[in-house]
Protein: Terpene cyclase/mutase family protein
Amino acid sequence: MNVRRSAAVLAAVAVLGAAAPAAADSSPSPSPQPLPSALYGDTDPQYDGVWRQSLALLAQHAAGAEPPKAAVGWLTGQQCADGSFAPFRADPSAACDAKTMVDTNQTAAAVQALAALGGHDAVTDKAVGWLKSVQNEDGGWGYTAGSPSDTNSTSVVVGALAAAGEKPGEVKKGGKSPYDALLDLELPCTGKGAGAFAYQPEKDGSLTANADATAAGVLAALGKGLLAEPGEGDGSAAKCVKAATPEQAAANGAAHLAGELAAQGYLLAATPGAEDQPDVGNTADAVVALAARGDTAQAEKSYAWLEKNAAGWAAQSGPAAYAQLILAAHATGADPRDFGGTDLVKQLQAAGPAAPEKTAKATEKAEDEKDSDSPFGVWWFVGVCLVAGIGIGFLISNRTKRQQP
Structure:
């Protein structure tokens, strides 16, 4: 799932949205801090450190590669005493407090990665306990404790529960399970966006189709996580029928995704003010969702499109993007070491602890980003998100709420 694209942008939107205008601060900015050597990627981990680390470890495990012990140790060391995870704690020895911005997405992603690797039951059990404690009355989860349920956050938590050996349908709050929350977030089979999942209800209670949320919703309704095995099916998408069960909701969501992918093989990005362009991350997530359900015909076609077009995107986007593509390869039974001529596993590993001069490169890049005047930088995108009114949602490298017709 796209995994779904940036916790950094989304969390920044939340911070900016809550902040009052202030006079410019003329004091010098602090120098960028060196990044931990065990961390994947060389960009600021403040909003997605645990998320991208978790995906990197999970993807290597999926490809049969053993992640470095230092990278695993860094992830386990990020956990707070109550079991939750924040995106990044520069000083893990300092106790978490009310100002530590923990969230369900980082926590659930860490559970999925550590459960797959094995040998970390104490960490995952405590994390699952925290996730259960912040479940909403409708059965779902929001990005942060107490925030309204959304499809993406509910999905990554369902994946964590399943990875930890829980039965998601039996994890209830107020008598409702995660599947009840998901059924409430799926559009009917008639009208615009038939069968898709919404990220969250609109202010008037209506639901708007969202491709990213739909991919996440399909996986969750199947009771699967980010590391999804190829599903059993006849290879074709089912028709949309009113969903009374999670399985039917998954079938409906998959049918919607297959329909959106059919024309060009990829999903379109919905960036305000921009021309239509492929959304590579959402397309990779859709491939995982379709393959996990056994809808192999469209999954394989779209995976072939990714092989031809996604290597450059991953190189630019970083380790979480490489991980997404590896997980798409795993779900379709493809070889991530031969991805259109690119070895995705090698590229991902190069972004990890073994990468030379990583800290120096990260510091230099942080300085460049700080001084950049480009109208297409991160903060420009944050501004667009604010104007669009997009709230906190499911993470990963560039993820924003994406609405599909």
User: Anything to note?
Assistant: Residues 54 and 110 are 5 Å apart (CA to CA).
